[in-house]
Amino acid sequence: MGFFQKLKAVFTSDSNSHSASKNGDMIKVSTQTPTMNKQVFNQNKINLEEGILRLEEAKCPYCQHQLEKPPSRKRKCLSCKNDMYVRTLPYIDEKDKIRVLVTEEKADKIDITWAKINGTYNDMMKERKQYEQMKQELYRAWGNEPSESDINWHLMINKRIEHYNNQQWGLYRNTTLSMAEHLYKLKKYELAFIMYLEVLYIDVNGPNNAGKINGRYEFEVRANFMPFNPKDKGNTFVAPAILKRVNFIRTSKHPIDSEKIKELFMYQCEQVHHSLNLPITPQEAWDKLKDEITDNKNNNEIL
Asked: What are the boundaries of each domain within the chain?
């Protein structure tokens, strides 16, 4: 059967362990906080179940179809048409790190185990609940099953509204970036391009996140709270990765000339300027960014 056939226990058992189970299969995780001195993952005590294969084997975890090379991310098997997932089995010591190619069910179990180790399990469960609620909401509105992409898009819209209401502009900016990435993956390059421009515009305005003071947001109790501060150099950093993506789109994915870029920038950012009451005008921002946005030396693809 070999080393990677049955996974009976991923973690060493102790008296303080909980289990995440699905259809009788269990991945045990200690409730104690892992430390570098405590071996959480023990390679010698595992046998991998069906549905989990070493990544370097480059085989489909469903049908064992031989792949041309190990994938680096989620891929669909050309043989059985199932989605394959790349994961790292839970470990503490770097020498125990094992990359695997897994089924959707096993990917879910590994994600849950990592969340318990990292202390993010409750957040994960909250996000999954929101996902299911959005799925049902869209189904009721549309009368048919929404795609994963549609669900995630509407969740990001809701998250951005939440950050807007709480004046957490750094988080608002991050969610806008996630939306741009989402559109890029869908190959909606012009729409993605416009949202990347919006992110750059927000960045030059120096977005701040409102913290809480005695349970109330700063803007509610501090008259001097600045939602945006373009003079704060630490907060007006323009990410090179975003500039690379913008230039890659305009030169390789959806060719756009400089005049059209300015037109798109001004149109989108005028709306954002009035909606968010930003201190830097679109024209001022364009003057700061135009050379970098239209730099042909900055057009290599990024992951």
From this structure: 17-119, 166-298
